[in-house]
């Protein structure tokens, strides 16, 4: 199941990967229980939205550290997406994730390129993307593990974990397809191929120079050049 709905070298073992941080898996069968639906598993402190007009997610750049955006001394909740711009599953999720801040204005939403934050990806067991984690403060509390990644399934996940209901009038719009999270695949650089080409070119150059040097050492060759 993991290998078919995620991008990564070990997607099939994604859920078997040992985590360095405790993350509850939030199994799908819990959604069917009425008791678990009534009692939220994470008691989130909702932020004050007074005076705020625009609700959008923030994408971390390569120099920004996720832990600087998470307050370990608070009980507010943040939904964090690990993605890569070259993964088609990340691209198809993008417009749905872009719409979430409007559905849950009292929560925070962050996204980061897993290929640019490899240490964080390892720390939180991200061996395949997209990977969505619900944090309370700086602690990961639950992982979204459904293969159907839509606005509705994401809203259900947040409600089942926090008890916070989504705004009913929010839908995926054309603006959500445009950003801030990219829904168009980005062609990544194949560093292995680039390295191989550069290595081959260097080897050919070295072999050529070496051959010219050897010609000077062959008896009779140096006389031709002297004449």
UniProtKB/TrEMBL annotation:
<dbReference type="GO" id="GO:0060271">
    <property type="term" value="P:cilium assembly"/>
</dbReference>
<feature type="transmembrane region" description="Helical">
    <location>
        <begin position="191"/>
        <end position="209"/>
    </location>
</feature>
<feature type="compositionally biased region" description="Low complexity">
    <location>
        <begin position="1"/>
        <end position="31"/>
    </location>
</feature>
<dbReference type="InterPro" id="IPR036249">
    <property type="entry name" value="Thioredoxin-like_sf"/>
</dbReference>
<dbReference type="Pfam" id="PF00085">
    <property type="entry name" value="Thioredoxin"/>
</dbReference>
<dbReference type="InterPro" id="IPR013766">
    <property type="entry name" value="Thioredoxin_domain"/>
</dbReference>
<keyword id="KW-0472">Membrane</keyword>
<feature type="region of interest" description="Disordered">
    <location>
        <begin position="1"/>
        <end position="38"/>
    </location>
</feature>
<dbReference type="GO" id="GO:0005929">
    <property type="term" value="C:cilium"/>
</dbReference>
<keyword id="KW-1133">Transmembrane helix</keyword>
<dbReference type="InterPro" id="IPR042418">
    <property type="entry name" value="TXNDC15"/>
</dbReference>
<keyword id="KW-0812">Transmembrane</keyword>
<feature type="domain" description="Thioredoxin">
    <location>
        <begin position="20"/>
        <end position="163"/>
    </location>
</feature>
<protein>
    <submittedName>
        <fullName>TXD15 protein</fullName>
    </submittedName>
</protein>
């Amino acid at each position: 199941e993991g290998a078919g709905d995620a991008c990564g070298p070990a997607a099939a073992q994604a859920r078997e990967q040992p985590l360095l941080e405790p993350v509850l898996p939030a199994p799908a069968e819990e959604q069917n229980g009425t008791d678990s639906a009534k009692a939220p598993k994470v008691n989130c402190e909702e932020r004050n939205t007074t005076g705020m007009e625009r609700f959008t997610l923030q994408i971390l750049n390569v120099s920004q550290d996720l832990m600087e955006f998470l307050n370990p001394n608070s009980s507010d909740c943040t939904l964090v997406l690990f993605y890569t711009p070259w993964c088609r599953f990340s691209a198809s999720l993008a417009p749905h994730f872009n719409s979430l801040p409007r559905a849950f204005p009292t929560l925070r939403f962050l996204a980061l390129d897993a290929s640019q934050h490899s240490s964080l990806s390892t720390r939180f067991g991200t061996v395949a993307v997209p990977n969505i984690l619900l944090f309370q403060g700086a602690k990961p509390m639950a992982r979204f593990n459904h293969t159907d990644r839509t606005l509705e399934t994401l809203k259900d996940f947040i409600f089942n974990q926090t008890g916070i209901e989504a705004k009913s009038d929010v839908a995926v719009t054309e603006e959500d397809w445009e950003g801030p999270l990219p829904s168009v695949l980005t062609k990544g650089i194949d560093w292995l191929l680039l390295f191989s080409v550069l290595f081959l070119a260097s080897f050919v150059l070295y072999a050529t120079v070496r051959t010219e040097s050897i010609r000077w050492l062959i008896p009779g060759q140096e006389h031709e050049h002297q004449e």
